[in-house]
Amino acid sequence: MKLFILENCPHCMRARHWIEELCEENPLYRDIPIELIDEAKEVELADSYDYYYVPCFYDGNIKLHEGSASKEIIKNIFNDYLRRNGK
To answer: How many distinct structural domains can be found in the chain?
Structure first.
């Protein structure tokens, strides 16, 4: 899974905090590979994906969520990922 962020974005910081919190609450979430991509540092890669707002979650080429995310939204993304991958 790819997570496009901007380092100083408050929505991205909150999403990263909730990811850590969710991983503490449910050890299965720790098995989800998350590649953090700072779009300001990896411009070419970020430009190859179709999104406008961060944070933005992708699984392969499938956009899972774009923009401000609540803890519940991230939890649903994780649960859907685990379901799709048979875990």
So the answer is: 1
